[in-house]
Amino acid sequence: MNGRQTAYHIPALLNESIDGLNIRPSGVYVDVTFGGGGHSREILHRLGRDGRLLAFDQDEDAIRNVIDDPRFLFVRSNFRFLKNFLRYHGIEKVDGVLADLGVSSHHFDDAGRGFSFRFSGDLDMRMNRNARKSAADILNEYPLEKLREIFANYGELKSAYKIASSVVAFRQTKKFVTTDDLLTLLEPFAYKDREKKILAQAFQALRIEVNGEMEALTEMLSQALEVLKPGGRLSVISYHSLEDRLVKNFFKTGNFAGEVVKDFYGNWQIPFELVNRKVIVPEMEEQEVNPRSRSAKLRIAEKK
Which domains does the chain have, with CATH numbers? Predict the structure, then answer.
């Protein structure tokens, strides 16, 4: 593991993801998930004097990790606005984009943010605390069918309908406010042999909905393709099957349905060349040092 890390978050697959960018010392790169700055620091370490790095993060907590380096620019925004901010800063094309998706250790370990079922706290889950809806708002306001879709699609929970029905019944007598309220509701569905997995899936489903994660991911990937130079690299680390499926389909076909499109002459219109045909996962040594890296999957593609 590389020593250039912060206590805020231990970056997964650090060297593999940065190696995948094939960094040019004078190139322009974007880290769309700055967080604790671990990946950004490694990119800067490999850049020369004329290189440039922009880093995005919508969470105000990430500002404390901003790097004092003339080659570095921090953008406090959701990565779904990648293209707009690049244009604002006078950048048309870049040499590489890195995305380390999911939630940082900082968020999971901060009881006040409500991301983890391990702590009592407000049922919030907003990456951007200026966002309008929290997880509690969703549970208190969404109709039954919408709740079922969230738990089924984003949490891949078999009991999605029963959980959604229980939410609607629960809120008739008590509003959802804290993580404990949600845990109380989930208790009958969290079978002892799979308790942690089911709780994690339910919390994941709400977090994805609160932050519009799947929509933001598709927008960012589409824009990354636009702003990358030919030969530019896109290096993406995902942590659950929904993200990984989108990334895999996009890299292989250029769209999120995974359907290969042909032009008028029958030629495949595939915008990327896969750098790694087999997904990269952390070595056992890394998983032991950083248990949260166990679900990490890295895919790298080069724009044709």
Answer: 14-105+213-303 (3.40.50.150), 110-211 (1.10.150.170)
Q: For residue 111, is pLDDT > 80?
A: no
pLDDT band for position 125 (50/70/90)? very high
3-state SS, the chain, equals CCCCCECCECCCCHHHHHHHCCCCCCCEEEECCCCCCHHHHHHHHHCCCCCEEEEECCCHHHHHHCCCCCCEEEECCCHHHHHHHHHHCCCCCEEEEEEECCCCHHHHHCHHHCCCCCCCCECCCCCCCCCCCCHHHHHHHCCHHHHHHHHHHHCCCCCHHHHHHHHHHHCCCCCCCEHHHHHHHHHHHCCHHHHHHHHHHHHHHHHHHHHCHHHHHHHHHHHHHHHEEEEEEEEEEECCHHHHHHHHHHHHHCCCCCCCCECCCCCECCCEEECCCCCECCCHHHHHHCHHHCCCEEEEEEEC
Q: What is the pLDDT of residues 93-106, one digit of tens each?
A: 999 999 999 776 55
Give pTM, 2 decimals: 0.91
| 181-223 confidence digits (pLDDT tens) | 999 999 999 877 788 899 999 999 999 999 999 999 999 999 9
